[in-house]
């Protein structure tokens, strides 16, 4: 485990926060990987890294606030130290591949995608990238400017999730509410 200091906490929307951690040395990871964060009280959670690769001593996480008193975001304070695991996970950017790439994210799952998108955008690759991001509401979407600034080889779509609670369906073993995805771009 590594020790990191929380140097910034800021809201990105009404329930997702940007947390910036600073290490005493460069933190090595691959775009798309995640870490485990352990608080001094022993509470822990797993979070995808939202930063560019080779970003030096600071990394960025996007963490959802579950709005309950046990939410990890409510226990984080600027200046506090936390323990961080080595980066893990196999859903990382294969920078040497020339194959097209499909990235799908839901809600705060954008953080792993953000790391991959930014790292790929700065590469010399010419491969096509297809990115789909699904959010709970239009108001929840953040960093749209970043998505709009990606190179033309990136085909990006951002959707908000709409629950049509009045239209129930029941088809055999599957029942529930009808859900639709609404593209925010005309």
In total, the number of domains comes to 2
CATH superfamily of the largest domain: Translation factors
If you consult CATH, what is the topology of the largest domain?
Elongation Factor Tu (Ef-tu), domain 3
SSE order: EEEEEEEHEHEE
SSE blueprint:
Blueprint: E1 2-11, E2 16-22, E3 34-38, E4 44-48, E5 58-64, E6 81-84, E7 101-106, H1 110-121, E8 129-135, H2 144-148, E9 154-171, E10 174-183
Parallel strand pairs: 7-8, 8-9
Antiparallel strand pairs: 1-2, 1-6, 2-5, 3-4, 3-6, 9-10
Features:
186 residues; mainly beta; Elongation Factor Tu (Ef-tu), domain 3; Rossmann fold; 6-stranded antiparallel beta sheet; 4-stranded mixed beta sheet; disordered C terminus
In short:
InterPro entries: FAD-bd_FR_type (IPR017927), FNR_nucleotide-bd (IPR039261), MRET (IPR050415), Riboflavin_synthase-like_b-brl (IPR017938). With 186 residues, this protein is mainly beta.
Structure write-up:
With 186 residues, the chain is mainly beta. It folds into two domains: 2-84, Elongation Factor Tu (Ef-tu), domain 3 (Beta Barrel), CATH 2.40.30; 101-183, Rossmann fold (3-Layer(aba) Sandwich). The chain has two helices and ten strands; from the N terminus they run E-E-E-E-E-E-E-H-E-H-E-E. The protein has helices at 110-121, 144-148; strands at 2-11, 16-22, 34-38, 44-48, 58-64, 81-84, 101-106, 129-135, 154-171, 174-183. A six-stranded antiparallel beta sheet has the order 4-3-6-1-2-5. The chain has a four-stranded mixed beta sheet with strand order 7-8-9-10, with helices on one face. The protein is globular. The termini are far apart. 23% of the residues are buried. Residues 164-186 have low confidence and may be disordered.
């Amino acid at each position: 485990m590594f020790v990191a200091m929380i140097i910034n906490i800021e809201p990105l929307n009404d329930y997702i926060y940007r947390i910036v951690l600073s290490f005493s040395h460069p933190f090595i990871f691959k775009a798309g990987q995640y870490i485990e964060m352990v608080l001094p009280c022993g509470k822990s959670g797993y979070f995808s890294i939202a930063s560019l690769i080779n970003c030096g001593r600071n990394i960025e996480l996007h963490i959802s606030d579950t709005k309950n008193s046990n939410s990890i975001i409510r226990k984080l304070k600027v200046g506090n130290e936390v323990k961080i695991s080595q980066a893990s996970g196999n859903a990382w950017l294969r920078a040497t591949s020339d194959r097209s790439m499909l990235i799908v994210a839901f809600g705060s799952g954008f953080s792993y995608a953000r790391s991959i998108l930014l790292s790929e955008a700065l590469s010399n690759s010419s491969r096509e990238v297809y990115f789909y991001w699904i959010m709970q509401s239009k108001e929840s979407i953040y960093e749209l400017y970043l998505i709009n600034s990606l190179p033309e080889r990136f085909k990006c779509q951002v959707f908000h999730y709409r629950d049509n609670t009045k239209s129930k369906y029941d088809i055999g073993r599957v029942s529930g509410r009808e859900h639709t995805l609404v593209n925010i771009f005309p």
